[in-house]
Amino acid sequence: MSTVARLESLPASSLQALVQRITNLSSDALMGLLGVVAEHEPSLHLWQIDFIDEIQLDLQAMQPLTLSAIANYRHFLPCITIQVLMAATRSGSVADLGQAIEFLPGKLFYMAVAAPPKAKDGTIFFSIDTQLVYWNYCLDFGPLNIGHVFRFNDIIAEHLAHAAKSNAKVVFYSSTNGQRRANAVCLLGCWAMLFQKLDAATAYAPFEKLSFPPFHDATDFECTYDLSIKNVLDGLERGIKSNYVDVHSFDVDEYQHYEKVENGDLSWVSRKFIAFAGPHNKYSNKNGQITLPPEHYIPYFKQKNVTLVVRLNDKCYDKSRFVAAGIDHLDLYYPDGTNAPMSIIKQFIEASEKTPGAVAVHCKAGLGRTGTCIGCYMMKHEQFTAREVIGWLRLCRPGSVIGPQQDFMEEIQDIMRNAINASLPSEEADDATAIAKGAPSPGRFRSEGSSILTSLGDMRKAGIKVLMPGKGLSLGRPAPNKKTINPQGDYLIAQKQSNSPPQSPARSPPKSPLRPR
């Protein structure tokens, strides 16, 4: 349904109420409402002050009209005014754009504002928009990771303690940008679950009538899989119940040390699993692109009782280097960017169940294939849903599970969750027969023939040029140059190293962040 059609279907009484509320907004609050419009209409240049005057005049003209006149008048409104009205309906109310939402009764509030609020007696304002930053791979923008949640606790705990002494209220605010609002509210919800012992439903309740953009996967293409704030909170709730994270034992310094590429690019995602970027034969640092050998990881793996390394990508190092150190090694290769055959999933889960210690899993970047296989284990053993496990994995290791792998997780969710009391399908029962019954998952690439090409690397081998959109281009449109991209894993590694903050000096490794078994 088009925006105009949605507006025409709105009852005249509801439209009149919206008009009255919007015309009473300040210019700053109306700017905030324009921010919501910008999320849905990025091509419109909405930050010109002329629009403010135009919209206010349109709506002021509607205020004295009768309901029947309003019903007819709406057909003649300019597009920008229609967009503002529909943004108000999408938001559930206008209150979230200029008025504070109570989160902890009488103590803590959240608001989205176009500009930092002015100081006010009895109120402590703070924001983390430029302090806790998501370092993206592609078009992904969040959620902020679990390390950010613990840093946020340090910040907010200080403000709440000061407010308690001075009988003040704390207002946590973000900009009106949709991505910033989504990250702020998700961060606040995660904090409340970990440090205020709220469940996911209670933590999200103050915001359930509001509208937020869904989180995007780590690609430069349009994402058809909508992962919501609530999905992420549900994933955290499952992780807490599974004893994956504990506020008393989590070491945020450890987490933030090892997430850096130069320190290993590894993340504990449960008591059982480490996800990490694939090692190479030797250390190198060419133009800031770092590769690390197995020997970089072996001391840490031995210290943390890692008894198995699983490699899901092409061989870039000799596995005997891990084996010689007393760490078992298993190769379960399948093409970059694709969905795992059931035979691979079965072998992965069985090997992980049999090894007595922790399992370190990698592909090229340690995101797509790695997250998918670990997620399958979690769905079986901890009864995560697909959305919960994707949300949880992205909290622990941002960028995990990519493209068609998201839909694949949905497809095999019931098989994995039921496997706790039954065997997985036989090795011969591939995902094409046991899961999708021959049909490709949504979003998979197809060639002219019947074969499914899901790997960017395979597409290159098949002679198909894949063009990645450049910055500022619309989704789905090829970049203007003819350059083909590298396989997905190589591309993600390069993106992480180019988008990450400057390298930090080496330091002694602290304890492990999550709770290894």
Tally of individual domains = 3
Total DSSP E strands? 13
Uncertain residue ranges: 43-49, 90-98, 431-486, 503-512
Radius of gyration using CA atoms only = 25 Å
Taking strands numbered 1, 2, ... along the chain, how are they ordered across the largest sheet?
5-6-11-9-10
How would a crystallographer describe the biggest sheet? Answer: 5 strands, mixed
Oligomeric state of the chains in view? single chain
Given the C-alpha coordinates, what overall shape results? Answer: elongated
Helix content: 40-55%
Describe the structure.
It is a single chain. By secondary structure, the protein is α/β, with parallel strands linked by helices. It folds into three domains: 3-90; 101-239, Protein tyrosine phosphatase superfamily (Protein-Tyrosine Phosphatase, Chain A); 244-517, Alpha-Beta Complex (Protein-Tyrosine Phosphatase, Chain A), CATH 3.90.190.10. The protein has 20 helices and 13 strands. The longest helix is centred in the first third of the chain and has 21 residues, at 146-166. The model is unreliable at 43-49, 90-98, 431-486 and 503-512 (pLDDT under 50).
